[in-house]
C-alpha cells in the first residue's frame, strides 16, 4: 500500500505523529510539577489541609502523565537513527552534547527525586520531601531548556562551521550553539504555554466539579474552590504575558525566518506601503495568492514593524522551492492566536467575577472554563505545527534540507512502522489517558487518600516477609491464638 508513497513524507508524518503525541504530556507535566511544588509549600507553610488534599489529588495524575511522557519520548530518539540518520550524522556533533546534557542534568534529576516526591512524605521528613518536589519541578524546566535549545538551533543555527569533507556541522562556540538567536524567545514562549496548559486543565476540572455541586446543591469542598481560584489567577496573569512573549517571538522570527512569517500572515505579495492583517482566507500556493481574503488594511505592518506604512516583503521574494507549506502554517497560526485571546478573555472574566465575589458562583464562567480545559493542549500543538512546518523545506534552516536529511529507507518500511506506531500509541496511551480522565472525574475530597506504594501491596512471594504482614498472616491462619 506504500509502494507509490514518498518515504521522506512518511518519515515526516511519523515523527510529527510521535512528537505531537509525546508533547501533550510534557506540556501538562511541566506546569503540573510546579503546581505540586507550590501546593506542598503552601501545606507546609499554612498547615491547611486543602493544600495537602490537592497535592494528593494531582500527584496521582502527575505520576501517570509523567510516565506516559517518558515512554512516548523514547520512540523519537530511535527515529533519529532509523528515519533521520543523515541528519544525525551531519548535525550530531552540534546537537549531541545538549541532548546528552538533557538526560544527565534534567531527566536524572526528575527520576532521582520522583520516588521521594510520590512516596516519601512519611519517610524522609517534610524538608527533604519539599526539596524533592522542587527538584522534580526544576528537572522539568531543565529538560525544556536543553530540548528547546536544540530545536532553536535547528531554526536559527549559530556557533558552528561545516566540514568541507564530511559535510558535518562542527561546533565552534558552545555558548552560541546553546543561546542561539531564537532560543530565549522560544524558551519563554513554550514554558509559559506549558503553565497555561496546566492552568486551564486544572481550572476545567475544578469547574466541572463546581457545576456538579451546584446541580446537586451540596457543599463544595474548600479544595475545589481553591483549585479553581489558583487556576484562574494563572490564567489572569500569564495569558497577557504569553501574548506579549508571542509578539516578541514573532518579531524575532521575522528577523531570522521571514518566509515563515510570510506564510503565517498569508502574504504572497509584497506590500511596499503597509501590509494588511488577513483574518481569514484560503491560501492558494499554486497560484501564489490568498483567495477570499478578509483583512484589516496595514495592521500587519503595525504589528510587525510598529508602523502602519512600513513595507513588508512577501513570498514573491522567496523561490518556490524554499517556501513552506503556506496553508498549514496559515491556519495553525490562527488557531493558536485565537485560543490565546480566548484564554485572555477567560482570565479577564474570572478577574471580574473575583472582584464581584462571584468566582465560585458563576455557572457561565464555569462552563466556559470547562470548555477551555483542553485549549492549552490544542494551542501548543498548533504552535509547534506553525514553527516546525514553517521551517520547511529545511531541518537546519538555510543549511540542510529535509529531503537530504532522511535515511535511505523504502516507503514500505517507514509506512509499516508508522501504522504500528499509530495502533500502539492509541491503544497504550489512549488507555492511560482514559484512566487520567477517570481520576479527574472524581472531585478532590477531604482527607484525600495518598498515593500508595509497594508497602501496601500484596505480601511478597520470595525473600524475607515483613514482620507486620507475617504476624497478620499468622493471626489469620490461627484465629484462636
From TrEMBL:
Looking at the record's lineage, which domain of life comes first? Bacteria
**Listed Basic residues bias regions:** 472-481
Q: Is Transferase among the key words of this record? A: no
Region of interest (Disordered), ranges: 448-481
How is the protein disposed in the membrane?
Multi-pass membrane protein
Q: Which residues cross the membrane?
A: 23-45, 57-80, 100-120, 127-148, 192-211, 223-245, 328-352, 364-385, 418-437
Which UniProt keyword terms apply here?
Answer: Cell membrane, Electron transport, Heme, Iron, Membrane, Metal-binding, Transmembrane, Transmembrane helix, Transport
Localization of this protein: Cell inner membrane; Cell membrane
Query: What protein family is recorded?
Result: Belongs to the cytochrome ubiquinol oxidase subunit 1 family.
Q: Which PANTHER family match?
A: CYTOCHROME BD MENAQUINOL OXIDASE SUBUNIT I-RELATED (PTHR30365:SF14), CYTOCHROME D UBIQUINOL OXIDASE (PTHR30365)
Please identify the protein, giving its name as recorded.
Cytochrome ubiquinol oxidase subunit I
Amino acid at each position: 500500500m506504500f509502494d507509490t508513497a514518498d518515504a521522506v513524507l512518511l518519515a515526516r508524518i511519523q515523527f510529527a505523529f510521535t512528537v505531537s503525541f509525546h508533547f501533550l504530556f510534557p506540556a501538562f507535566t511541566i506546569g503540573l510539577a510546579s503546581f505540586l511544588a507550590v501546593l506542598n509549600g503552601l501545606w507546609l507553610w499554612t498547615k491547611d489541609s486543602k493544600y495537602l488534599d490537592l497535592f494528593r489529588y494531582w500527584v496521582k495524575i502527575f505520576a501517570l502523565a509523567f510516565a506516559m511522557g517518558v515512554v512516548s519520548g523514547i520512540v523519537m530518539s530511535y527515529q533519529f537513527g532509523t528515519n533521520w540518520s543523515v541528519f544525525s550524522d551531519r548535525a550530531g556533533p552540534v546537537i549531541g552534547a545538549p541532548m546528552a546534557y538533557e538526560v544527565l542534568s534534567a531527566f536524572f534529576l526528575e527520576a532521582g527525586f520522583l520516588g521521594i516526591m510520590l512516596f516519601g512524605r512519611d519517610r524522609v521528613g517534610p524538608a527533604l520531601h519539599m526539596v524533592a518536589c522542587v527538584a522534580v519541578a526544576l528537572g522539568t524546566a531543565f529538560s525544556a531548556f536543553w530540548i528547546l535549545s536544540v530545536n532553536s538551533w535547528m531554526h536559527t543555527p549559530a556557533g558552528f562551521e561545516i566540514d568541507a569533507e564530511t559535510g558535518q556541522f562542527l561546533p565552534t562556540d558552545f555558548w552560541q550553539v546553546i543561546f542561539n538567536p531564537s532560543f530565549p524567545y522560544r524558551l519563554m514562549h513554550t514554558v509559559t504555554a506549558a503553565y497555561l496548559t496546566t492552568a486551564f486543565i486544572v481550572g476545567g476540572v475544578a469547574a466541572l466539579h463546581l457545576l456538579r455541586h451546584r446541580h446537586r446543591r451540596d457543599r463544595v469542598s474548600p479544595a475545589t474552590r481553591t483549585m479553581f481560584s489558583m487556576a484562574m489567577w494563572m490564567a489572569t496573569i500569564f495569558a497577557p504575558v504569553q501574548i506579549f512573549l508571542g509578539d516578541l517571538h514573532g518579531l524575532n522570527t521575522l528577523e531570522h525566518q521571514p518566509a515563515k512569517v510570510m506564510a503565517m500572515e498569508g502574504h504572497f505579495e509584497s506590500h511596499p506601503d503597509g501590509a494588511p492583517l488577513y483574518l481569514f482566507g484560503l491560501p492558494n500556493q499554486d497560484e501564489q495568492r490568498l483567495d477570499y481574503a478578509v483583512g484589516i488594511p496595514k495592521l500587519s505592518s503595525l504589528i510587525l514593524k510598529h508602523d502602519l506604512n512600513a513595507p513588508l516583503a512577501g513570498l514573491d521574494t522567496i523561490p518556490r522551492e524554499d517556501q513552506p507549506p503556506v496553508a498549514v502554517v496559515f491556519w495553525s497560526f490562527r488557531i493558536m492566536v485565537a485560543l490565546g485571546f480566548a484564554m485572555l478573555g477567560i482570565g479577564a472574566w474570572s478577574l471580574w467575577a473575583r472582584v464581584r465575589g462571584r468566582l465560585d458562583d458563576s455557572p457561565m464562567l464555569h462552563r466556559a472554563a470547562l470548555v477551555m480545559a483542553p485549549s492549552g493542549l490544542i494551542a501548543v500543538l498548533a504552535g509547534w505545527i506553525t514553527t516546525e512546518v514553517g521551517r520547511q523545506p529545511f531541518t537546519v534552516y538555510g543549511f540542510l534540507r529535509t529531503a537530504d536529511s532522511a535515511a535511505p529507507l523504502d516507503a514500505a518500511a517507514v509506512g509499516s512502522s508508522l501504522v504500528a506506531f499509530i495502533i500502539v500509541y492509541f491503544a497504550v496511551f489512549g488507555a492511560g489517558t482514559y484512566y487520567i480522565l477517570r481520576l479527574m472525574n472524581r472531585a478532590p475530597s477531604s482527607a484525600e487518600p495518598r498515593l500508595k506504594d509497594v508497602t501496601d501491596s500484596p505480601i511478597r512471594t520470595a525473600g524475607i516477609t515483613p514482620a507486620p504482614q507475617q504476624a497478620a498472616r499468622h493471626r489469620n491462619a490461627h484465629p484462636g491464638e
